[in-house]
């Protein structure tokens, strides 16, 4: 190539126009994500059921409601689970379900199809009851019965355990409600972020969501302290009635 010839350069490829940022400096809010709404609805449904079960069982376990009496045990079925350790895997008792006839102390309530499920890893009162019907082959068990036929062991420790679960479900319910309303999702880049979702909540529902967090948070802390106090002062063996 001679020095007098012009040098040809390739034309630069066209670049898409860059949109300028908003004048006020705010970041555009992504549209609600469908997966975020579905995720929130699932959490709301599950936690509503969880709150109803835990809080109602806590009240029943307190002994302040329901009918006190005895369950005359007809049969019990033990369920096992597999656990691994350094010695290998082995089967251990997980829970036991006993069927029988319930009779209230005053004789006003008789349920011939009563049943109760006891966990071997539950509260000390529940675990003791599970050992009583399996190891000792007890034929009667002192229980408390709700109006819908649910049976429970009266125990302060059980009350503390179920209250912890109930307030935890309340916190998850608050989070799920926000996801269902705004389409927010835990994974970054899908739907609005958590801070953006806070601003998208309807004004009428914003105070409700805030109070759910407050009540759930304070309630969970108090329930945990209550549960710790039971263990320290040995109140689990006392009837809460």
TrEMBL record:
The chain crosses the membrane at residues 34-55, 159-177, 211-238. Keywords: Membrane, Transmembrane, Transmembrane helix. Residues 1-13 have a biased composition (Polar residues). The keyword Amino-acid biosynthesis does not apply. It comes from the Bacteria. Residues 14-27 have a biased composition (Pro residues). The keyword Transport does not apply. Residues 1-27 are annotated as: Disordered. This is DUF3592 domain-containing protein. It comes from Streptomyces tabacisoli.
